[in-house]
Amino acid sequence: INYNTVKFVASYGKASQIPPSTCPEVSFVGRSNVGKSSIMNKIFNRRNLVKVSSTPGKTANVNFFEADGVHFVDLPGYGFAQRSKGERDRWAQLIGDYFDLDRSFNLVVSLVDIRHDPSKLDHQMIEFLQEGEFPFIVALTKADKLSRNQQAKQTAAIKRQLNVPAKNVIVTSSESGQGIEELREIIEQYCLG
Ligand code: GDP
After folding, report:
1. ipTM
2. How far apart are CA 58 and CA 11, in angstroms?
3. pTM given for the model
4. Å from CA of 39 to ligand 1 middle
5. Ligand 1 atom 22: the closest Cα is on which residue?
6. How do residues 39-94 score in pLDDT, each as one tens digit?
7. What residue stretches are annotated with the EngB-type G domain (predicted)?
8. What are the pocket residues of ligand 1 if the criterion is a CB atom closer than 6 Å to any ligand atom?
9. C-beta separation of 141 from 169 below 8 A
């Protein structure tokens, strides 16, 4: 995949507005502030293509990008940006409807902050992906904030807690670039076979 060819496609507030898939798709999910925009920008070698977390209260959308015939789907983040029950309900509806669509779910990249034990919402998200049998990997973010020794310990603990096979967990940093090339290669495997 030539990631440098990336361009913004469209933004949708409702799953029903999203046109059917016409190509392989990789979706990104995670808690607000986990580093989702940063990692997507890093994959594309772009500074500001994917906008940093929408401010609380602002409508969270599903944003589509395209590079070399592959769709990259930025799903709204969960967690602290949702202050009200209304916002949480809207997120759950949008995500639930999105994963209910009949589309090319080649790969879901589920982002988890390497520094912390997975939150209740992280557990729920990953259980949802496991139960729905979606192809997914867990990308641990912000690895530069830990030493290599701490990274190894936290990675082992998170794998155990989430009950995800070792080969489906990768350690990344948008700051240092750690794991980014590996992530690009995994995306290619799932999207282009
Ligand atoms: P999003 O809400 O998941 O899209 O998260 P952002 O990409 O906007 O990142 C949230 C904050 O974490 C920002 O202040 C980023 O600069 C910071 N951040 C993101 N990724 C990394 C990383 O790999 N290392 C470090 N040290 N900070 C990061």
Report:
1. 0.99
2. 14
3. 0.96
4. 8
5. 142
6. 999 999 998 898 765 554 455 899 999 999 999 999 999 987 667 888 888 899 99
7. 22-193
8. 30, 32-38, 52-53, 77, 141-142, 144-145, 173-175
9. no
- pLDDT, position 57: 44
Rounded to whole angstroms, how far apart are CA atoms 65 and 8?
4
The rounded Å distance from CA 28 to ligand 1 centre is 14
Domains of the chain: 3-192 (3.40.50.300)
Angle between helices 120-131 and 148-162 (to 10 degrees): 60
Can you read off the two tokens belonging to residue 24?
A: 């392989």
E strand or H helix at 26: strand 25-30
Q: How large a percentage of the chain has pLDDT more than 70?
A: 95
Could you give the CA distance from residue 129 to residue 133 in angstroms, rounded to a whole number? Answer: 6
Helix (H) or strand (E) holding 10: strand 7-12
Residue 33: phi and psi, rounded to 5, are 80, 5
